[in-house]
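Review this chain:
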Amino acid sequence: MFNKNIKLVIAALIIGYAVYQFIEGNIGNGIFLILISLIFIFLYYRNEIILLAFLRMRKQDLEGTKKWLSKIKNPESALIQKQQGYYNYLHGIIFSQTNLTQAEKYFKKALKLGLTMDYDVAMAKLSLAGIAMQKRRKREATTLLNEAKKLDKNNMLTDQIRMMQQQMKKI
C-alpha cells in the first residue's frame, strides 16, 4: 500500500517516538511502539500485496492473483529487487496457463532478479524446463531439469522432475 521508502520513514518516526517514550519513563509504550515499527520494517522486505497475491495463488485463484498484482502500478520503484523477482515469478505462473512465451520471459526475469527460497528457484527452473521441452529445446530443458533437481533439497518436486524426464525420453 505504501511506497518502500515511506515504510522506512514511518518505522523511523515510530522508533524515534518510542525512544522519547523511554526517556519519559513510559517503558511499556516504548516497547509497544518498537513492536509496531517492526511491522513496517517487515513489510519493507515482504510486500503486503505480494503476500496477498500468494494467498490467492495458494487457493488456485489465478484471477484473484492477477487482480492483486495489478494493484502494483510501478514494480521497479515500488518494490525491492527480491520482491520484483517474486512479482515476475507470480506473473510467470499466471501466464504459464495461457501464453508460454510470456511466461518464459517472466520466469527468466524472476531468476535474474533473484528469488529468496531454493524451492521457488527450483520451481521456476522446472517451469522453464517444461516450456523449453514444449518448444523442442531438449538440451536447455535437460540443463534446467538438472539444476532444478539440485535445488530441490526437500524432494518436493521429485515426482514432477521424474515425470518430465520420462517425457524427455519420448522426444
In short: The chain is about 80% helix and 0% strand. The chain has two domains: 1-45, 47-170. Residues 47-170 form a domain with the Serine Threonine Protein Phosphatase 5, Tetratricopeptide repeat fold (CATH 1.25.40.10). The two ends are 47 Å apart (CA to CA).
